Amino acid sequence: MKRIIVAGIGPGSREDITPAVMTAVGEADVVVGYKYYFQFVEQYLKPGCECVDTGMKKERERAEQAFQIAEQGKTVVVISSGDAGIYGMAPLIYEMKQAHQSDVEIETLPGISAFQKAASLLGAPIGHDMCIISLSDLMTPWEMIERRIKAAATGDFVTAIYNPKSHGRYWQLYRLVELFLQERSADTPVGYVRQAGREEQTVHLTTLGAFDPEDIDMFTVILIGNSQSYISLTPNPSPNGEGGKMITPRGYYRADTPPTMISSPGQQIMMESFRTISSELKRDYPLDHKWALLHAIHTTADFDMEDILYTDEGAVEKLYNMVKEGKLKTIVTDVTMVTSGIRKGALQRLGIEAKCYLSDPRVANMALEEEITRTQAGIRLAVEEHPDALFAFGNAPTALMELCDLIRKGKAHPIGIIAAPVGFVHVKESKHMVKPFRNIPKIIIEGRKGGSNLAATLCNAILTFDDAAQLKPGRDL
After folding, report:
1. Catalytic residue (choose from 298, 386, 413, 432)
2. 298 catalytic, yes or no?
3. 168-180 residues labelled b (16+ CB within 10 A) or e (exposed)
4. Fewer C-beta within 10 Å: the chain N or C terminus?
5. Which residues contact 331 (CB under 8 A, 6 or more apart)?
6. Can you tell me the distance from the alpha carbon of 462 to that of 266, in angstroms, rounded to the nearest whole number?
7. pTM
8. 323-364 residue pLDDT tens
């Protein structure tokens, strides 16, 4: 019987060869393949089976020889690493059969591909829609490869990268990373496995922003996550990802997961927005400043925030730690719109009260008697009752100036200040007045810009800083 069986023998270990392939190899009269792979199947060969090696990069000659032998009535098994249909011998064999109008029977047996083996070692990174791209431009023009890279990045596919580098191809992987960072967050998980399934096997986890193409060689398979992928925190991974697992959710966990643990549609939109903003930032920033910046830009759609958002070093993280330690219990705002914008779910979850004194009956009387603005009067009352609160200003520069005066008199000891009043009169000056208080963590929107929405979103950034590392905003929406 004239027959060619094209068999995928897996990524490189005997344990990953399927029983069907073992049986086929055991029944073959001749096995054709690259000599390096014979070592993985030799134990299954029947006595007298001939092994024919055509050398590396001799795929066409290998296929021609397989047909010549099969025409003699012999059963030929053509072995291919991984899965024979994925960058393997199967397409070539079928094309040659058609070109020669051969009556040789062709059968393909699937194997475990290198990306599947790598995925199993990394955790569960290919749990949703995915694609595979080879960076080898030997037979495909680079322009076509680049279009495919852009499509994969834009389409939010989990992407496996084959043939990432060779001695002559050193820049293509750098270009791929550049293209992906135009569409994906720098925090996108990336896993790569060298010599998957073999004795030299190494496994690494990192992020798109930290990924170094110099760590990659021609024996490495790379997996880039999608916008939902993450690196598990249990067990805690080391800096190179060891101990963690890369996971791309499929969605099954939703069925029996408490609503508080599910990403709502609103949160999913917010996460995608944050990733988009992150990819368009002019430079990288410390995590706590970046978290505040992402909130500010998301609220305003104004990338000027990169130039005008000021935070003391570590201010967001310090204020969040005070929340965790129970030291920050009250947020005082200058106007009710700021209070309204602070997420009620976060306040309740963390046991924090947000207050505005503007509607307090005492305010109107004090404002008349002292000939000050109502917002100033509100701050005076707030300082009497909550001198150590977090004070957030999104409207009134006079209120911020009042707080500065009370601090200098020793009557107020705020745990932190968010200075985002907006307008044209005394606005810039009020923000300059805050900066000399070096021991108070401060977040400031420089210049005339600001607003209640900004003050509120900066409060929300503080309350959710524990979500910053995974770039998962909107927990309390």
Report:
1. 298
2. yes
3. ebeebbeebbebb
4. N
5. 339, 342, 347, 352, 353, 354, 355, 389, 390, 391, 392, 459
6. 20
7. 0.61
8. 999 999 999 999 999 999 999 999 999 999 999 999 999 999
